[in-house]
Automatic annotation (TrEMBL):
It comes from Sphingopyxis indica. One of its GO terms (molecular function) is lyase activity. This is D-altronate dehydratase. Belongs to the UxaA family. Residues 13-84 form the SAF domain. It comes from the Bacteria.
Length: 495
């Protein structure tokens, strides 16, 4: 009996993915037939199942992932030496709604969260300190450190989120900074927020506060450092006041529908689209199926697979907004003289991903089968149950911060290579392979490699239990490691 060492995802695929390192001369079994490898193929990399002619499309996930740049023999390694992207330009899209697919039913679950006055729910009750400008970032961090020790145990944490922006910015660039900070200031995981300004910066406090609805300002305090003699003492006094308010909040039983799930991948490998991303897709189905919200972003990492999302648009309006967002992002690349296919990263390539089409077809699986109900631009907030597509680049820190600003109260972050990064919202790191989960146990919260032996149903139940535990207050590895940062999208000129 030939052991299962590779996987063909779709019956139409002309390649299989190696699940372990395979030597030249080894045999893989696909649908009862065996293929002999003519060269070694590393775990996560692709092997041709039949001869592929030069110029012929290579099929994975049931879709083309590029074209062969040279003849490829059956059993040969398929990668960047003989496969290239077919993406170019902005592309044409069709409105062909596919209807909602049936998702797997899950047992009802609840979590212990914080019910906010405006009907939203938090998974943490923290005090956040947001500097309007990089000049007061260290002040914010110092205040958070002192206040954290002073009020230990009264709230779930006191955190400052430094960034280098807020001055010498113009137009949309300044608007991005202001809008993102305003959105973070309204996050349901923050029981209180102190916004600290310098006083002379471009990102003026008054303009930032004007972007926040009046009904959400009750737990927000502001301070201009240049306007007071002792800025540290003044900040600490305001944090004391916020802690006194937030400390009265208590966790209560809340339904899964109260969650807002952000889904993200970073440092992906050839197994990400086989294990971790489809597993997260099941979590998206579970949360949205219960009436919750799911947010998908990383727009450059859906290029080549965007039609699959467009086919799930809940209306023609949502379809048109999706097309506009994708085209705007492609034009952004082209305006800067960059090809739209300048992806995957070196780490992705080392892990077995060859083209952007392949990466995108794996990445969009994080959205499960959830209907696409809304499209939001950078700094916008997810407002409708179902799947929201959010404008942000692929950069891990920038896009995960955008997910938080859009209201994500838990982030599911899949990875095949590993990363220690954490963000304002609790972030669960999900490894695509068991070797990574074992080697970097201090980073990884869940091993999605188990689906290859245990199956998706068992792994789905276990991951959903972990999400509920994290939403109820159990600290993620990133939180335990004090990995809590933000990054703001810089897209314009600096004065």
């Amino acid at each position: 009996m030939i052991p299962v060492t590779s996987l063909r995802i779709h019956p139409a695929d002309t390649v299989a993915t190696a699940l372990v390192d395979l030597d030249a001369g080894a045999f893989i079994s696909v649908d009862g037939a065996s293929v002999r490898l003519v060269e070694a193929v590393a775990r996560g990399h692709k092997v041709a199942l039949a001869p592929i002619a030069k110029g012929e499309a290579v099929i994975k996930y049931g879709f083309p992932i590029g074209v062969a740049t040279a003849p490829i023999a059956a059993g040969a390694h398929v990668h960047s030496h003989n496969l290239a992207t077919a993406l170019s330009g902005s592309g044409e899209y069709r409105y062909a709604p596919a209807g909602a697919a049936e998702a797997r039913a899950v047992a009802p679950r609840s979590f212990r969260g914080y019910a906010r006055a405006d009907g939203r729910a938090g998974t943490r009750n923290e005090i956040w300190i947001l500097p309007t400008v990089g000049c007061v970032g260290n002040l914010a961090a110092r205040v958070a450190r002192i206040a954290g020790a002073r009020h230990a145990g009264r709230v779930d944490g006191i955190h400052a989120f430094k960034h280098p922006f807020g001055c010498s910015q113009l137009g949309d660039d300044l608007g991005h900074t202001r809008g993102l900070l305003a959105a973070l200031a309204q996050h349901p995981n923050a029981g209180g927020v102190l916004i600290v300004g310098l006083g002379c910066e471009s990102n003026q406090l008054d303009a930032l506060i004007a972007d926040i609805p009046p009904e959400r300002r009750a737990s927000i305090r502001t301070l201009s450092a240049q306007a007071v003699a002792d800025d540290e003492a003044a900040c600490l006094a305001l944090v004391d006041e916020l802690v006194d308010m937030a400390a009265t909040d208590r966790r209560s039983n809340l339904p899964l529908s109260a969650l807002t799930l952000g889904v993200k991948c970073g440092g992906s490998d050839g197994l990400s689209g086989l294990t971790a991303n489809p597993l997260v897709g099941r979590m998206a189905d579970a949360v949205a199926g219960a009436g919750g919200k799911v947010i998908l972003t990383e727009i450059p990492e859906i290029f080549g697979a965007e039609q699959l999302l467009m086919d799930r648009a809940a209306s023609r309006e949502v379809f048109d907004e999706t097309v506009a967002l994708v085209r705007d992002f492609k034009d952004y690349f082209l305006r800067h003289g960059e090809p739209v296919s300048e992806n995957p990263s070196p780490g992705n390539i080392a892990g077995g991903i060859t083209t952007l089409e392949e990466k995108s077809l794996g990445a969009v699986q994080k959205g499960g089968q959830v209907p696409l109900v809304d499209v939001r631009r950078y700094g916008g907030e997810a407002a409708r149950p179902g799947l929201t597509l959010l404008e942000a680049p692929g950069n891990d820190a920038v896009s995960s911060t955008a997910l938080t600003a859009a209201g994500a109260t838990i982030i599911l972050f899949t990875t095949g290579r590993g990363t220690p990064l954490g963000f304002p919202a609790p972030t669960l790191k999900i490894a695509s392979n068991s070797a990574l989960a074992e080697r970097k146990a201090g980073w990884i919260d869940f091993d999605a490699g188990r689906v290859l032996e245990d199956g998706f149903d068992a792994a789905s139940d276990a991951l959903l239990d972990l999400i509920v535990a994290a939403a109820s207050g159990e600290e993620t590895k990133a939180e335990l490691n004090e990995e809590r940062d933000i990054a703001i999208w810089k897209s314009g000129v600096t004065l």
